[in-house]
Known about the structure:
heterodimer, A: Rossmann fold, B: alpha/beta, Rossmann fold, about 25% helix
Amino acid sequence: MDVIVCVRKVPDTAEADVMVEKSGKDIEKSRLTFTINEWDNYAVEEAIQMKEKYGGTVTVVTVGQKDVEDVLRRSLAMGADKAIRVDMEDPDDAYTLANILCAVIKNQKYDLVLFGAQSGDFNRGVTGAMVARMLGIPHATMVNGIEVLDGSIKASRELEGGLNEIYEIKLPALLTIQTGINEPRYVSISGIRKARQKPLEVLTPSDVGVGSIEPMIVLDKMYMPPPGKLAEFIAGSPEEAAAKLASILKGKGVL
Amino acid sequence: MAVFVFIEHREGKLMDISFESLSAAQKLNDTVVAVVAGENVSDLAEKVAKYADKVIVAEDPKIDTNNEAYTRVLNELIKKEKPKVVIMGHSSMGMDIAPALSVDLGLPIATDVVKINPEGGKIKVTRSIYNGKVLADYNLKNADTYIITIRAGEFSADDLKEKNGKIEIVDSLLKDEVADKKFVGYVQPVVGAVDITQADILVSVGRGIKDKENIPLAEELAKTMGGVLSCSRPIVDYGWLPKERQVGTSGKTVKPKLYLALGISGAFQHVAGMKGANMIVAVNKDPKAPIFSVAQYGIVDDILKVIPALTQKVKEIKG
């Protein structure tokens, strides 16, 4: 089973103070930390578990400038065999990105292509299925379980309300992976150091053979959401705040 | 010009997102054409007709709940009717179908949209990005048809206007059965020992709980308050609590008297599952966490300090 996993480096904005740059075209990134997109981490783990079970190879692919290589090294340390980076700025437009990734993947040997179901920065949830279409292979998004059969796979897709649906899909296929599908392994610093010997290929856009692509969607401006109705904040030390909250709850008849 | 709305239904029931999609379509002040595809869907079509100018019914047993089949049916209908916009949910189903349609027909797509702003023949959309901390406006490339998927909960079905449109039945549009992707069946959620939807008080933990070892702290608080422990998605993903405890789009929808959100940032998927609570209290160390805009009371602090203090105070009050 040869598996290709497309990964992406994203800023960790869950608990960070996020501000829009003056240009309105980006956020201020200097104080943010960056990691592999959470969904992609599960996809890499899933690919490596397949390799451990069925043999084959795992190739990780990303698009971006040199600073995104650490997510590739991390994936190599987890157990991927080879990494490919297309050396260009990450395109804002998912359609452009999908075209580039498709051009890379179609020159590789693969049975399965994995993506994260979405990314934590733009939550578009669109690139994987687009690439499947461009490659002309079947796909399933939001996959939370995979069973490998002979020449096909059974994929469980997450629906709303805890319901799942099962598809049987012929290989080669493309799946986008939902979080929680597995337990991604821990990556140590020494593991990353050791993985430096593994091949990391850098391709230029012209190596890939993608000309200029008209984006489907173009950013006009970013801005902070208008301040909405906010909670009534309870101030004080943890003990003081807890005491005030407890008496509010008692007053409201909840306790 | 028409706006297509793809109607999502499952196991004989219309999904909420279908009504929200109709609501988004009505706001564009064009002819609203709902597309209902599948097997035995005439009852559903009648319900949808109430809010659409026209309903196209593509009845075909070959569709067999297969997203690929829905994609092909929509493809044929879009080519035939050339709608200005196609709207569907940014749901699990929409995520499978919409990007494929976009590539197949060469049409621009915007996903997970929270606002649609038509400007003449063009379309501008607003998306909520970076964990809900930033809004972004995008222009779509000029095209005859635009594909848009909408975020659940952003287009209220409460403002739907009655239209009582006519129903048009079309012949099967699916030439062949889908060979490479077969729908096998549904797997129902596991029924566990605890039903969080029945609890009056939910003490709910998120990423801020930091470690599996800290879960008993929250469990003790829940017990002291006479409530039940629930959680947000990451806690289930990490395997710290079972799926039956999960609140949100992919978990349970709850309406307790009190929802105490501890270390939960308030992603829209989570909020969709708990915004109906009578009272929401949030504790989070990030004062800008979106959870504070749905909560009535908030404490900005580390939950690992607040939880034991609150357990103590509740014990004192309860005597």
